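Schema walk-through. Below, the input block comes first and the output block second. Nothing else is stored per chain. Lengths vary across the set, and this one has 391 residues.
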Amino acid sequence: METLNEILDRLIQALPYRIVISRPVGKDAAYRKIVVEKKESFYQVAAYTEKQVFHRNIPAEETAALLAETVAGAYREMHAWDGKKEYTIFISKKGKVTYLEKGGGQMPRAESAHNRKKKYLIEEGTAVPPLVDMGIFTSGGKVVASMYDKYRQINRFLELIEDSVADEAGRCLRIIDFGCGKSYLTFVLYHYFTQIKGRDVQMVGLDLKEDVIAGCNAAAAKYGYHNLRFEVGDISGYKAAFPVDMVVTLHACDTATDYALFNAVSWNARMIFSVPCCQHELNRQAETADFSLLTRYGIVKERFCALATDAIRANLLECCGYKTQLLEFVDFSHTPKNILIRAVKRSGAASGKPVVPASVKRNYLGEVERTAEEFHFTPTLYRLLKESGRI
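--- output ---
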């Protein structure tokens, strides 16, 4: 008699396009069902709770091991379909395995390639040099299976930017990337605008590390990205050599984000895209008598202060004439840095004078000041804007 593992190995050899694992053992099971679906060169796993679904991708060769680990002792039923047969596994309370195969019958229809494939801004098929060097694309332009989540994250980032960039024919787009680091997304963003959208772009990446900047400039030269250059410098007090349309700051640490946002406001940049990182400033300052519940427990205090930091930044940008959103960038399962601040200059605010009714501005600013008073916060962005007379 075949063991469960032997059955699963044989089943995977049939290349099923859909597998459903159900009937969890006991009421404490983490998921009520698990659905495994074949994609291009990997399998996508969707684990369902009562209210949520969690996704991850696995290489095809690891699928049998995953099924064995998942099913054994935890679930009592599994169905799989390969387009010709339905495969069924039942596991009794005593652990007896029953395996059935049948042809025809009611099977979920495999999605067509047209329906299954999502259209990404950077599609497979072309070897994008930065993505090849990052290990996300093969030299033939295919996505590496284990890097599919990162590929989706990059496209999600581009989608969030594309939604805000007006298609102005002939207009040069001038971009500053603060705290660029090794500049993976900087290169991708430049490639997208110049090679895919055909835009004229002038772009500068700024970072404090000389060796990193030297490597980035060498990579830009290798890729032929002639209007992309990198400079060593501090965000605070940085002077742009040209009028700035867009400021990007990804994971600039702590108050470096505040200086980047302040520079963007000072330059009347039309667009700001910021993924904050390491919001320690308010965590160090937080004190309150009436809401000590939010500051008593370390992890709660850390998350509250991080969220308060970004909410305050968003309000202050609204006061300065920007339509501001806080958007999810990536899932918590990939990184805790999952908030993107997207701010776009409101129509008519190009002069630098915020197009915000006085009553609305008072409301936004009042919320910031009352919160700061309650928790003894002195946010850097608030101080910079106050001292410069912008709020």
